[in-house]
Design brief:
Layout: H1 2-12, H2 17-41, H3 47-55, E1 57-58, H4 61-66, H5 70-73, H6 81-102, H7 104-128, H8 130-133, E2 139-140, H9 144-157, E3 162-165, E4 169-172, H10 173-186, H11 193-214, H12 221-235, E5 254-256, E6 259-261, H13 264-278, H14 285-295
Antiparallel strand pairs: 1-2, 3-4, 5-6
Length: 297
C-alpha cells in the first residue's frame, strides 16, 4: 500500500526527525482507536483501559517499578482528538524552529529529555509534596511535557521570533511560552495537576537545555549516542573509525583571499549573539546555513 510505503520512507530518512515524531504520535493514537473500537464491538470491556494504563506514567513507585518504560512511553499517548491536535500543532510549529536552527538530533533530544524531565517532576511532586502525596493515585499521559520543553527551548533560543495568531495578530514566541507556563502553574491544583506539573518540568528543561547549549554543554549527547548505537545495530553496517596523524599546530586564524577568517566556533557565537539581539529573521542566508551546518556536527 502507498500509505505503508510513505510511512516507511518517512522513517528511513535521517533528516526527518520532526515528521517522525509527529508520525509516531499519530500512529499510536490510531492504533489505540482501533483497539478501542474492536474491543468494544467484541465486548472486551476494560481491555483498552488496561493497555493505556500499561504505558501511562503512574505516580505510585511500586507500579512504576513494574512498568519502568512508562517514564517515556507516556509521552506518546493521547486520549481525545483535541488532546493530540493541540500537542501536535505546537510540536510542528515550534519543532520546526528548533529543527531549522539546531538540527534534527537536538530536536529529538529535547523531546525525549523533556518527557523524562516532566516525568521526574511529576514523580517527585506526587511522592514528596504533601498536597499530592496524600491525594488519590494519579497517572499522566500525553506529549505535553515534551512539547512544552520544545516550546520554551524555541522561545529561549529565538525570543523575538514572531507568530501570527488568529484573531490576535503577530506575537513574539517568548510571550507565548510565558503564557503557557503561567497556565500550567495556575492548573497545579486542578483536575489535571499531574499533567500541568509535567509541563513545568518540560519547561524548566527546555530553558536549561538552550542556556547550557549556548555555553557549550549539550545535554542531548547521551540521547544522540544512544540513537547512533541503535541505528548502527539495526542498519547492519559496520561502524567506521577514523584515525589521523598528528599535524603541526595551526594558527587560530587562517588567510583566505587576502582576508582573515575567524575560527568556526567564533563565527557561530557571533551568529547566536545576533539572534539574541535581533532575532532569527535578522540573519542572512549564509549565516543561517552556517548555523545549520554547525548543528549537524
Amino acid at each position: 500500500m502507498s500509505i505503508v510505503n510513505d510511512i516507511r520512507t518517512a522513517f528511513s530518512r535521517r533528516d526527518n526527525a520532526l515528521n517522525q515524531l509527529l508520525l509516531i504520535n499519530i500512529l499510536v493514537f490510531v492504533v489505540l482507536i482501533l483497539i478501542k473500537a474492536v474491543t468494544f464491538l467484541a465486548g472486551g470491556s476494560g481491555i483498552y483501559e488496561s493497555i493505556v494504563r500499561l504505558f501511562s506514567l503512574p505516580a505510585d513507585l511500586g507500579a512504576l517499578a513494574r512498568r519502568p518504560w512508562s517514564v517515556l512511553t507516556y509521552a506518546f499517548l493521547h486520549q481525545g482528538f483535541l488532546h493530540i491536535i493541540f500537542n501536535l500543532l505546537n510540536l510542528y510549529w515550534f519543532g520546526s524552529l528548533v529543527r531549522e536552527y539546531l538540527g534534527d538530533r537536538k530536536l529529538v533530544s529535547l523531546y525525549i529529555l523533556g518527557a523524562l524531565a516532566g516525568a521526574a517532576l511529576f514523580l517527585l511532586a506526587y511522592n514528596l509534596v504533601p498536597a499530592y502525596r496524600n491525594g488519590p493515585l494519579a497517572e499522566v499521559l500525553g506529549a505535553s511535557g515534551a512539547v512544552t520543553a520544545i516550546i520554551v527551548a524555541a522561545a529561549t533560543l529565538l525570543p523575538d521570533y514572531t507568530f501570527n495568531l488568529i484573531l490576535i495578530g503577530p506575537v513574539k514566541i517568548k510571550y507565548i511560552a510565558i503564557v503557557i507556563v503561567i497556565i500550567s502553574l495556575a492548573g497545579i491544583d486542578g483536575g489535571n495537576a499531574g499533567g500541568e506539573i509535567a509541563h513545568i518540568g518540560g519547561a524548566i528543561f527546555g530553558f536549561s537545555f538552550i542556556k547550557l547549549l549556548q555555553r557549550g554543554t549539550d545535554l542531548g549527547r547521551p540521547v544522540q549516542a544512544t540513537g547512533d548505537w541503535f541505528g548502527g545495530l539495526f542498519s547492519g553496517r559496520p561502524r567506521l573509525r577514523v584515525t589521523h596523524r598528528s599535524r603541526p599546530t595551526e594558527p587560530a586564524t587562517t588567510a583566505r583571499k587576502g582576508g582573515v577568517v575567524k575560527p568556526e566556533q567564533d563565527e557561530i557565537d557571533v551568529i547566536l549573539d545576533k539572534i539574541s539581539r535581533s532575532g532569527y529573521e535578522s540573519l542572512s542566508k549564509d549565516e543561517k546555513q552556517k548555523l545549520f551546518r554547525a548543528s549537524q556536527k
